[in-house]
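Hi R.,

As promised on Friday, here is the backbone we talked about, encoded as structure tokens. Could you run it through your design pipeline when you get a chance and send me back a sequence?
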């Protein structure tokens, strides 16, 4: 009888153990899901078609002087300093259009903007150009700014619509706010919506700016 009682206790203990493991497993799974959601949420992508040839659109975006013009007025974006490195030689057909104001690989672009609209507090952003391919794409990273990391790839794809030369303007942004799960919350509540607002404004203004 004593042996049977001990065996029953041992069996009950073994049956009760998985319950504790299940709770622990749920916590691990919950943490994993949060981290996975944070990783997925890091990428932001947008596209827009404009009725202008790709070489014209590329020259517009490769000129840092146009950056404040495509930002929302509420941000009060200023171009504070630019250290330009000349891009590689352009295609022969485009040589006559080239100016000395284009940002090739190694260029640094320093801007500042309001952290909150209508407040005098400003933040500084230093972008470094890391890639440049004529009429195809260029990319920049945040050298100094509010994020742990920020990579922005600008892609341009020629596409004709209704008999008109046009260009798809594609932006792919990979960002990391930092601070783990707390950063994921900040990204969801602030950084993500602000990015959407910024690009919504740019898309509404871009065609008019390219027409000038």
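Update: got your reply. Pasting your designed sequence below so it's all in one thread:
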């Amino acid at each position: 009888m004593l042996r049977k009682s001990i065996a029953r206790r041992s069996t009950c203990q073994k049956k009760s153990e998985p319950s504790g493991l299940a709770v622990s497993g749920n916590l691990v799974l919950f943490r994993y899901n949060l981290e996975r959601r944070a990783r997925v949420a890091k990428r932001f992508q947008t596209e827009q078609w404009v009725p202008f040839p790709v070489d014209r659109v590329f020259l517009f975006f490769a000129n840092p002087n146009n950056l404040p013009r495509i930002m929302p007025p509420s941000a009060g974006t200023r171009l504070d300093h630019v250290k330009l490195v000349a891009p590689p030689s352009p295609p022969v057909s485009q040589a006559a259009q080239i100016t000395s104001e284009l940002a090739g690989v190694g260029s640094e672009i320093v801007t500042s903007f309001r952290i909150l609209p209508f407040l005098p507090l400003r933040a500084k952003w230093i972008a470094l150009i890391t890639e440049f391919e004529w009429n195809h794409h260029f990319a920049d990273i945040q050298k100094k700014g509010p994020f742990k990391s920020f990579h922005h790839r600008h892609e341009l794809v020629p596409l004709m619509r209704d008999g008109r030369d046009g260009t798809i303007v594609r932006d792919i942004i990979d960002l990391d706010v930092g601070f783990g799960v707390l950063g994921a919350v900040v990204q969801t509540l602030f950084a993500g919506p602000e990015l959407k607002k910024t690009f919504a404004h740019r898309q509404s203004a871009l065609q008019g700016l390219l027409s000038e």
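One thing I noticed while checking it: The chain has one domain: 35-211.

Thanks again,
M.
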